[in-house]
Amino acid sequence: MAEQRKKFFKPKVAIISLTSCEGCQFALLDLGERFLDFANEIEMMDFRLLEDEEDAGLKLDIGIVEGTPITEANVKTLQELRKRSKILVVLGNCAAMGGIPEIKNYHEGANTIKHVYKYIHGINNPEIKEVDNFVKVDFTFPGCPINAEEFLKYMPEIMEACLPAGRAEIPQMPDQPVCVECKAAGNKCLLLDNKPCFGPMILGGCNAVCPTSRMGCQGCRGLRPKGNVTAMRQALKRMMTDEEFENTTEIYGLRDDVEDRIKSEK
Amino acid sequence: MASVVKGDVKSAKLEVQEGIRLIEGVLIGRHYADMPIVAQRICGICPVVHNLTSIKALENAMKVQVTPATKKMREIMELGQIIHSHALHLFFLSLADFLDMDNDIQLVKEYPEEAKRAVRIREFGMAIVKVIGGRVVHPLTNEVGGFKKVPDEEELRKIVANSDEILKEALELAEFFKTIKVPDFSRVTEYVCLGKRPNYSIYDGDIVFSKGLHIPVKKFEDNFQELQKQNEVIKKVEHAGKSYMIGAIARININHSKLNPYAQNYLESLGWRFPDFNPFHNILAQMIEIIHSIEESARLLKELLNSDLNEVVTKPYKVMEGTGVAAVEAPRGTLYYHVEVDARGYIKNVNIITPTAQFLANLEDDIAEYIPGILDLSNKERERKLRAFIRAYDPCISCAVH
C-alpha cells in the first residue's frame, strides 16, 4: 500500500499555525533530514517556517494545524482550513487542549488582560476554546510539544486514508499510560518517591520524556480513555493539596477534562 | 513569525496577526515552580533563554544561591541555543533573500554542501540543549536551585569530541558567507547588550550601551520604557525616547574584543570598522557568534568534565518573599524578567520584556530610511527587499506578543 501511494499519489498538505510558540513546527523541523524525506512524499502547500509564498487557499488532502484560535483571523483561518481539507489533523497541546493560554479561563478570565495591557479596546480577548469547538478534528497529535517521532509513525497511515480509492481508516493511538514507556526506560517511579506524577492517567507515546528527566508528568498529552482519574486523584492526595493538584492540571488545559471525567466516574 | 509589511515613503509599520496569550497575566497567582514551565512556552525557538531568565529572576527574588557549576551548565545551554537558532536563521530563514532565491528548496538544491554544514552546526547546538535539558523544544531539567538531574557524562564527552569537527564546518560555512553580497545600507543607532569584563557576556553581566552608559540589570525598567498604543498587542520599547538595537550585531559591536580566537580571526578578515551600523551585517554577526559559541561551549564543557558534575544538582533552599530581576542574552538580544513572589512562593507580579519587542522600533526606523532608496523598484521587487530586510532582523512575533 505504502509503495503504491508513494508512486502514484502525493497528498496535498498544509501545516498552519494559529497563536502559539510554534514549538510543534520546530519539533518537526528538528527531525532534519527525516522531515525532508517526509516532505518529499507530499506536496507541501503551506509551511511558513520554510517558505513564505502566500497560501493560495487550494483544496487539501490533509490540513495540519498548530496553536490556539485566539484572534478572529485565527478562527477564520481554522474554519477555512477545515473546508479545504479532507482530513484535519491537530498538532500539539494548544490546539488539542487549549494549552498555556487556557490557564486564564480558570482564574480571572477576560480580566487577565488588565495585568498586561493598558489599552484593551480593540484587542481580541476571548475565552480560550480548543480547536474542536470550532471544527471537526480527525486526528490529534498530543503533547507540548508533540513527539515528532509519533508524527512520522502515524502520518503514513493518515496519508493512506486519503488515497483516492483508499479504504484505510484513520489510525488510533493505543490506550496506554505514560508509565509503560517510563518503566521501559528503566526509570525509578517518581510516585514511589512521593513525587507527584500524572503518568498513570495520561496517554503515553511521549517516551516518558519528563519522568526520564526526573520531572513528574503534568499531563500535556491529555487523559487516556480508560484512565481512572478518581483513583489517581486519591493516590496523589498524599503528595499534593487540592489547590496544588488543580493548579498543575491547569498548565496544559487538563483541568476541565479531569473535572468532567471525575463526574462521569461517579 | 507571521508579519505583514506595509510601507509608504513616510512611515513603516509592522502588523501582526498573533493573538494574546497573556503569559504574564496567567502567571500571577501561580506557584513559582510553574513559572519557567509556562514562560518558556512563549517561544518554541528560544525556550532555553526564557527558562534560564525566569529561573534566574526567581532565584534573585528568593535569594537562592547556585553553584558555579550550575551557572556554567546553564551558560552552555544558552550557547547551544544560540548556535542552533543562529544556524537556522542565517542559513534557512535569511540566506535565500541575499541570493535572490524564492525559497529554501532552491537554496538547498544549489548549495547542498553548505546546507549540510548548516544542518550539522544546528544539530550540534541542539545536542547540547538536549543532553543538558532533556529535550530541545521546552527543556525539562533546569529549575530553581539547580538541575533535577546530572547530564549524562558520556553524552557530554561526545559533544566535546565533536566540537573540533563542528568548528571546522563553521569556519568553512563562514568563508562561504563572506562571498554573500549584502545591501550597502547603514543608519546610526544605539547598541545595547550585556557586558562583563573579561567575558563575551551571554548569561551574566550589566546592561552596556554603545554610547557609554553602563547600568545594573535592576535599573533596566528605569532606562527602558515599554509603550503600548491603542489596538496594538506588542509593547515596543524605547530608551530615552529613541529606538535602539540589540542582538548579535549589538553584541559584536560592543563586545568584539572579547571573542574567542577563531571568531576574532574571522571578524578581522571581514574588515569591519566599528561602530558598524549596517543592519544586514546581523547575519554575519550571527556567523561570528556561532564560531565563538562552539569554541566557548567546548571550553566550558571541558572545565565541567574536569570537576564534579554532581555539583549541578539542586540544593535545598528556602522559599521567601522578594523581588528579583534577571537578564540573559537570547539569540535575538537581551531578554529581561522581573518577578515578585510572596512568602508562600506564589507570584504577585511579572514583567517580561523580549528582544523582538525591544528592536521593533529600530526596525521600523531603519525601514523608513531604507524605503526611499528602493522606491524605483516594482511593487513585487520592493516587497521582496522589505521582506529580506525584516528577516535580517530575525523578529520573533511569538516572543514579541507573548
What report would you give on this structure?
- The complex is a heterodimer of chains A (266) and B (402).
- Chain A folds into 2 domains: 2-161, Rossmann fold (3-Layer(aba) Sandwich); 178-265, no CATH class.
- Helix content of chain A is 36%, strand content 11%.
- Chain A contains 11 helices and 5 strands, in the order H-E-H-H-E-E-H-E-H-E-H-H-H-H-H-H.
- Chain A has helices spanning 2-8, 23-29, 33-41, 72-84, 93-97, 148-161, 178-184, 209-212, 229-236, 242-251, 255-265; strands at 12-17, 43-47, 60-66, 85-91, 139-141.
- Chain A has a 5-stranded parallel beta sheet with strand order 2-1-3-4-5, sandwiched between helices.
- The radius of gyration of chain A is 20 Å and the shape is globular.
- Chain B has helices at residues 23-27, 34-39, 47-61, 68-98, 104-110, 112-133, 153-178, 220-223, 248-255, 261-270, 282-305, 355-370, 379-393, 397-401, and strands at residues 3-7, 12-16, 142-143, 146-147, 192-195, 206-209, 214-215, 224-227, 236-239, 322-330, 333-341, 347-353.
- In chain B, a hairpin with a 5-residue loop joins strand 11 and strand 12.
- The mean pLDDT of chain B is 94.
- At the A-B interface, helix 2, helix 8 and helix 10 of A face helix 1, helix 2, helix 4 and helix 6 of B.
Write the layout of secondary structure elements.
The complex is a heterodimer of chains A (266) and B (402).
Chain A lengths: L1 H7 L3 E6 L5 H7 L3 H9 L1 E5 L12 E7 L5 H13 E7 L1 H5 L41 E3 L6 H14 L16 H7 L24 H4 L16 H8 L5 H10 L3 H11 L1
Parallel strand pairs in A: 1-2, 1-3, 3-4, 4-5
Chain B lengths: L2 E5 L4 E5 L6 H5 L6 H6 L7 H15 L6 H31 L5 H7 L1 H22 L8 E2 L2 E2 L5 H26 L13 E4 L10 E4 L4 E2 L4 H4 E4 L8 E4 L8 H8 L5 H10 L11 H24 L16 E9 L2 E9 L5 E7 L1 H16 L8 H15 L3 H5 L1
Antiparallel strand pairs in B: 1-2, 3-4, 5-6, 6-7, 8-9, 10-11, 11-12
Helix pairs in contact in B: 4-6, 4-11, 4-13, 5-6, 6-7, 7-11, 9-11, 10-11
